[in-house]
Write a structure and sequence with these properties.
The radius of gyration is 26 Å and the shape is flat. Helix 3 (53-71) runs antiparallel to helix 4 and helix 5 runs antiparallel to helix 6 (130-154). The protein contains six helices and no strands. It is mainly alpha-helical. Among the domains are: 52-101; 105-161, no CATH class. The longest helix is centred in the middle third of the chain and has 29 residues, at 73-101.
Length: 161
Amino acid sequence: MGRRSRQRSTSRERSLGPPAPPAASTPASPSRASRSRSRREAAPAPPWGRFPLVELSVLAALVLGVWGLVQGGRAGLVLLAAAALLGSVAGLEVSIREHVAGYRSHTLVLSLTIAVAVMAALYFTRVARPVPVLVGIAAFALACLALRALYQRRASGLRLR
């Protein structure tokens, strides 16, 4: 029911005083703001200190993306590709930092990045077609195992956080 459909209290009900507190009070949980603040403080700090490099990179990627859409044509495609690359590198940096510090597990993202890099390198060497895919799958599997073990060591044995 909405507020308007509720009946308004009469003057007699208002004169009875404030409502009684609930019988069983629950312990106050920390507010959402304090939980997010402590979680942010627990995040690993970037090596460049408080300078907002990742945020500026994402902003530059957004500007390049909009510019690429407005520009159009071949130059617009180049700008869009640069925007995608810059935004991806900014996100990848945060993923690497959080994973290595044991703050959050980014095993799949980092493993897929390694696999794509290996497959791209093999593609440009012009080897037979199934080779880059097979080597990429093997690189993904090995990277998954290694990155998972790294995270477990850094996060004091935790599997996921």
